[in-house]
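Example record for the data management plan.
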Amino acid sequence: MAEQYKKASLIICRAGATTLAEITACGKMAVLIPYPHATHNHQEHNARILESAQAAEIILDKDVSGARLAQSIATAMEQPEKRLAMENNSYALGKRDATEKALQLCLDLLGKSCGRQGRNASKDEENALLCF
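Corresponding structural encoding:
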């Protein structure tokens, strides 16, 4: 997906946490259409965070139409300075080191449960962690 994100000038998508993490890590402007049936409406809540940071536009599912999407696409293409500002805002929200942080947390937790500190694990434990 990273290669596809790099090629994109604008991303139109739902607003799940992983998708938004990818978009912000790449610093892309997005038109977000939150899935209306998500538990506790979490996708709309996710999308509102990017909207409030001026990193994305939201179109609610009930408001989606070809004309509405065309309007959003045209605006993004006709106003490159606005798109660039939104991309910069998106990038500022991104956590490009999230994988490394999650790995370190897992290793630290494993180290604590084994009575060791994550990075000082034995060779057998290191081999067991190759999936990371």
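Summary line stored alongside the record: The first helix runs from residue 2 to 7.
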